[in-house]
Amino acid sequence: MKKGAPGECGAAVPDEPASRARSHADPHLGPYSASQPEPTTEPTTEPTTEQPADVAPDMSPDIVPDAQSPQPEHVSQDARLDSLRDTAVRDLAWLLFSPGLLRAQPPADLLADPFESASERADTIDWLVALDRDALALHSAIAAARVTRLGRYAECLLGWFLQHGPAARLVAANVALRRAGVTLGECDFLVETHSGRRRHWELAVKCYLQAGDGRARLADYVGPNLQDRFDLKLSHLLGHQLPLSGREEFATLGHRGPWEARMFVKGWLFYRAENLPDEAAARNAEPLAPELAPDHARGWWTTRGDWPRFASDHAMVWRRLSRLEWLAPRRYRDDEGQVPLVDAYTLAEQLEDGSGPAMVAAFARDASGACTERSRGFIVPDDWPRHAQAFARHHQR
């Protein structure tokens, strides 16, 4: 923890990659790993256009990695991702390299992967490092999109990557499928890989809190506002979204197929603070729903009544995270402006006016002097667990 004061720790730009958090004590942080398997990835979109409406192609010159300055072999891919400083670039890196929430399910692997090969992953890291040096065009595209929702922000980032990155190429985004004037749904992204495979990606970025009774069911993972549940979301993806590109009506839209449908599901899962395992036991602590990837990004949740005890044992300085800060773990540098961090008591006072759950993050000083997120979680109303368990038990919304 920072020697010094709760209060301010610096950066106008709010965050950095997830791998940094791995060095801090929590397996519950969701670092991105550059050494992922190489299957498929996916996103979410709107009108049938060759690029997402929220990404401004004319403002985005191609990023050319600096081929003249090769990195030493001992500098790992994770370390290079961890060195990224720009907020949006770190969020994009997290979106591409963090573990997914789901594991491959038989009979067919429907999980998307943004890369076809190890060389594409390595090229993407070079591209991100170059983009980090000048991300003005990316920021302009995000500003032009006027994003206010986390899912739309993630779409904007992934659309930018597909338009300007070194891997799969964007064919169309937010492709609406209609019949007799009625919208049946939208395909998030249509992409073509370097090998010529044509894929339909559905993107979902979700934060769910485990609120069940330990029976390892996907239905136990509920949205903080109890308007969403992981089993229902997965059923919608499998039963409605992924089949869209295989429908007869889709063939009339002019996008030559066939399209391989895949889902790109990223995010965080949060566990009750007193049930959190230590780092050594994190992956095997509680039985997981069989659909979940064991290395998914993790956080904690606690009630307002339990907050003082939990916070006093966990960290000295904290910050509430806005919804668009829910992707990569945050990191602030003193030379990037002042970002207010507060103690646990002040944070609790700040949350008194809000009636619902709030995501917060704990911070510590790292060796470089930056304030780095060491964990994140939700503070929920004292009656939230009871309502959440009831919502988890409902078979239908």
CA-CA gap between termini = 43 Å
- The total tally of domains equals 1
User: Main β-sheet: number of strands, strand sense, barrel status?
Assistant: 10 strands, mixed
String of helices and strands: EHHHHHHEEEEHEEHEEEHEEH
Task: Describe what you observe in this structure.
With 397 residues, this protein is an alpha+beta fold. It has one domain. 25% of the residues lie in helices and 22% in strands. It is built from ten helices and twelve strands. The strands form two sheets. Strands 2, 3, 4, 5, 6, 7, 8, 9, 11 and 12 form a ten-stranded mixed sheet that branches. The relative contact order is 0.20.
Layout of strands and helices, then pairs:
Elements (H helix, E strand, L loop, with lengths): L7 E3 L7 H5 L54 H6 L4 H11 L20 H16 L2 H10 L4 H15 L4 E11 L2 E11 L5 E13 L10 E2 L7 H12 L18 E13 L25 E6 L3 H8 L2 E4 L10 E2 L5 E3 L3 H7 L7 E8 L5 E10 L3 H10 L4
Parallel strand pairs: 4-6, 6-7, 7-12
Antiparallel strand pairs: 1-10, 2-3, 3-4, 4-5, 8-11, 9-12, 11-12
Helix pairs in contact: 3-6, 5-6
Keywords:
397 residues, alpha+beta, ten-stranded mixed beta sheet, two-stranded antiparallel sheet, 10 helices, globular, DUF1853 family protein
Can you summarize this structure?
By secondary structure, the protein is α+β, with helices and mostly antiparallel strands. It has helices at 18-22, 77-82, 87-97, 118-133, 136-145, 150-164, 230-241, 307-314, 344-350, 384-393; strands at 8-10, 169-179, 182-192, 198-210, 221-222, 260-272, 298-303, 317-320, 331-332, 338-340, 358-365, 371-380.
